[in-house]
Structure formats: structure tokens, C-alpha cells
């Protein structure tokens, strides 16, 4: 994680605004449980046509098209990126991409021009998307790719959702202090994104929770150093956080840089296990904001709990809070004095989907 990680979305605001206005009129502006479930198997066989143009035009009886990915050639595409490429730019209705079992060794990007994509696997142990890029890798132009472009899977579109699938960066583990070893498994740069029962696996900088509002529900996230980082406003509910640190590490690094910025990470009902000694959060941004509520924290949490990123001035501006957590790592006896044991009223804004304006885009 470095300055190279602080990427911005392409300048397509006008086009995207028109797309989303059309989608709102078509009733597609919510993510539902149906969007996260496997489509009917009937017709999803070799040679079956996929009508994605109706999604772009706002036509079609059910308003949902399905693209099947299968490595044996019995679907519409052998690769995940090939399926994403089949989604028409400017689509305004939900398109489901069903990924059949297999290990898909490829880098994948869902571009900003392709919102309303559902990526549905057939089990996190059966459907895996993996790549092994690191920040120090050299691209075709002779430059380092940087943290931002090291992602195995990158989401730049709005209203993306995924379920029952694993995203992995399989690059060798980065030792503490190593330079250029950041290796992102998943980058989320779109707004209004939901992941359900997904696994996100890596070591340093596993999940680049970059920008936007995101909801991760019942997901497994593995890493060692700052393995959830970025400037998004995200709710992690019922997630399993598993550390694979060999010495020290950290879970969350919030990049929030202004008191008026609404970003920050809220962990509710999550469970921390694994190895090493972990900070709950580090102040990547001057106004970093991270909250843990009702979490079960294993004994791998450092007694101090939190890190100021080596800048004492940040202790006056960060918001690091805990509310009704349990487990040996929840002990507050040696916590840094600038972290907060929250009252219910202080914790309440972070406890539910209201934190990410879920009433505006989730219908669950």
C-alpha cells in the first residue's frame, strides 16, 4: 500500500449518470437476494444463446440475462473476463455471470461502463479466480504496476454483487517491511457493491476497499499486513477475518483524510482468528475511522490495539472505536488512550446497513 494505490475512477461521470438514471427508471437500482442466487439451469447448456443486448436496451421479459463460464467449453465463455466482455457497455438491467467450478487463473476487470453485474460461483471451494501480480511487477510499458493494478479482480462498476466465489492473489507472502510486495486479491472501486459468502485470500493488502459504499456479508477475508485498506465506506457483517502474519500485522488501514469524509470501516459481529500479532487498525489517513462492534477478537490482537502510523498528530484526529466486543483480544486494559470504548449512542450509526445508506440500494 503506497501512493501508487490511490487510484481514481475514470472520468465518465456524465455517461454513468445517464446510465444510472435509465436504470432507476427500469427499477434496477437495488441489489436483491435474487441478484445473488444461481439462475435456473434450464437452457444453460452448450450452444444456448445469451441475450445480453436486451439488458442494454432495457427490454426482455424478466430483465435479467445469464452468461455461463465453463472451462470445458460448455458455457458461453471459457474465461471470466470473456464473460464480462460480453456484457454490453451501458447495460441498465441485471446481468448474471454464472461461473462453474474450476480454478480460473486470470486477471479480471469489471469496467465502470458495465454496472449491474452479478458474479455467481458454485461454492468458494469450487470456484476460484486467482492471479499472482505484485506492486513491483513490470508492465508492458516497463513501469511497475503499483498496488492499484496488482488486483486479481477489480470492480470499477456500480451495483456489482458476487456470491459463493473465491478471489485470490497467490503471490508469495510479503515479510514485514518489504517493498513492492503488495498483492491485491480484490479491488472495489465502484459504488453500491455487495459480496455474500465470498472468500478473499492474500497476505499484504488483500482487499483494496478503495472507494464507494460496500456491504460484505458472511465473507472470509485472509491476510497479514493492512489486509483491508482504502477509503471506502464499508460494512463488514458476520465476516471471518483470518490473519496469516508471521510476526506483526494489521487488519484495517483507513485512508480517510478529512473530517467531512464519510468513509471508514465498520466491523459488526465478525470473528478474528489466525497467527501473528495484529493491530485492529492503522491510521493510513489523518482522519482514519474504524469501528468494531459485537466482534469476537482472538488473542492475536496487540494489547495497545491501534497504530497511529508513526505520526503522533493523527492520534488527535482518528476515530478508532470498540463496542461490546468479546474474546481475549477485546481486553481494553492496555489500549492506547486515544482509542475509544464507545457508548451505544456513539456506536449506533455504525451497527447496521444505514451506515452505508443501504435503504437506498439494498432490498434484502
From TrEMBL:
Task: Supply the name of the protein.
Answer: Pectinesterase
Q: Which family does it belong to?
A: Belongs to the pectinesterase family.
GO MF term list: pectinesterase activity
Checking SUPFAM superfamilies in the record gives:
Pectin lyase-like
Keywords (A to Z) from UniProt: Aspartyl esterase, Cell wall, Hydrolase, Secreted, Signal
Give the metabolic or biological pathway: Glycan metabolism; pectin degradation; 2-dehydro-3-deoxy-D-gluconate from pectin: step 1/5
Species of origin: Triticum aestivum (Wheat)
Predominant localisation class: secreted
Concerning InterPro entries, the annotation shows: Pectin_lyas_fold, Pectin_lyase_fold/virulence, Pectinesterase_Asp_AS, Pectinesterase_cat
GO biological process, any = cell wall modification
Q: What class of enzyme is it?
A: hydrolase
Q: Per the UniProt record, which EC number(s) apply here?
A: 3.1.1.11
Per the Swiss-Prot or TrEMBL record, the active site comprises 226
The record's listing under PROSITE patterns reads: PECTINESTERASE_2 (PS00503)
> Secretion signal: which residues?
1-28
Q: Where in the cell is it found?
A: Secreted, Cell wall
Which chain positions lie within coiled-coil regions? none
